[in-house]
């Protein structure tokens, strides 16, 4: 091995050690625990954790909740972020303040955001019910209603993430050449045609990047649940990562939590293959 190769491996060694310690080793340990443990006790090779997973009605509901959560929050957050970026990128007065207003929710801690929205959703003193009371409406138990609690969490997520994704779209829009739009205007293309034929195709690399982050955020969302619903009522707002936490640290069933973690990992791998295998082909790089 040459001196340059040795030097390269030494430079990579700190990063490799961190990856081994915090990524690869925990992954192998999780797989091992899921098939060689029951509850908190070691055992012989067993698939009982996965058999129970197939029969777990709560898990089935949690998977549906997580899928609905991702299907609603991801496209909504991306769509609103794109609209906001197009708006604040236009020549308008006060656009700097508008950008700041859109971006402010992003810098707030997740726990702080949950407490802010708790003030909106509280059944008796909450702002939403106070507004409904002006129209002589009794209001709703927003977080205590099984039909509403999950959608209330979706609103919070979209509100917080749209401003973050807007920054990426805004940076991409400002990098587009004005000559493209000038040529399109000379050819008689309207604003919608320019957006459909020029802007949106050139924003596809940014959209793919945002899509990956939005999907990851949807599957790892857990902070709001601790403050707002704790997965209730009756698991109506329970999501997969919070269910893993419950089994590991509330029910102390670490083996089943490891099996659920592997399920989450496989779901993320499948989504990554879908995103980079399908959407990558529709992405136009300059």
UniProtKB/TrEMBL annotation:
The ABC transmembrane type-1 domain extends over 63-273
**Membrane topology per record:** Multi-pass membrane protein
UniProt keywords (A-Z) are: Cell membrane, Membrane, Transmembrane, Transmembrane helix, Transport
Its localization reads: Cell membrane
Principal localisation = membrane
For this record, an example GO cellular component is: plasma membrane
Q: Which residues form a coiled coil?
A: none
Q: Name one GO biological process term.
A: transmembrane transport
Say if the entry is tagged with keyword Cell membrane. Answer: yes
Q: Where are the transmembrane segments?
A: 61-88, 100-120, 148-172, 200-219, 255-279
CDD domains in UniProt:
TM_PBP2
Return any one Pfam family short name: BPD_transp_1
Per the similarity annotation, which family is this?
A: Belongs to the binding-protein-dependent transport system permease family.
- What is the protein name stated in its UniProt record? Sugar ABC transporter permease
Annotated source species:
Neptunomonas marina
């Amino acid at each position: 091995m040459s001196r340059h190769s040795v030097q390269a491996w030494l430079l990579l060694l700190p990063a490799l050690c961190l990856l081994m310690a915090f990524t690869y080793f925990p992954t192998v340990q999780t797989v091992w625990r899921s098939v060689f443990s029951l509850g908190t006790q070691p055992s012989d090779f067993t698939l009982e954790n996965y058999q129970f997973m197939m029969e777990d009605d709560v898990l089935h509901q949690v998977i549906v909740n997580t899928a609905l959560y991702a299907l609603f929050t991801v496209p909504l957050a991306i769509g609103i972020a794109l609209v906001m970026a197009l708006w604040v990128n236009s020549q308008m007065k006060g656009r700097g303040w508008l950008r700041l207003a859109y971006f402010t929710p992003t810098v707030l801690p997740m726990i702080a955001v949950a407490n802010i929205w708790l003030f909106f959703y509280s059944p008796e003193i909450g702002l939403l019910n106070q507004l409904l009371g002006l129209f002589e409406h009794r209001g709703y138990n927003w977080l205590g209603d099984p039909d509403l609690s999950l959608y209330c969490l979706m609103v919070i997520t979209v509100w917080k993430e749209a401003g973050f994704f807007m920054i990426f779209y805004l940076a991409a829009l400002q990098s587009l050449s004005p000559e493209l739009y000038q040529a399109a205007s000379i050819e008689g293309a309207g604003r919608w045609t320019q957006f459909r034929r020029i802007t949106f195709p050139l924003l596809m690399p940014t959209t793919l990047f945002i899509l990956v982050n939005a999907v990851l955020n949807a599957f790892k969302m857990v902070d709001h649940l601790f403050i707002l619903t704790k997965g209730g009522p009756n698991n109506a707002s329970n999501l997969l990562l919070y269910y893993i936490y419950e089994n590991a640290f509330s029910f102390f069933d670490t083996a089943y939590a490891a099996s659920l973690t592997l399920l989450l990992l496989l779901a993320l791998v499948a989504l990554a293959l879908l995103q980079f295998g399908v959407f990558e082909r529709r992405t136009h790089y300059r």
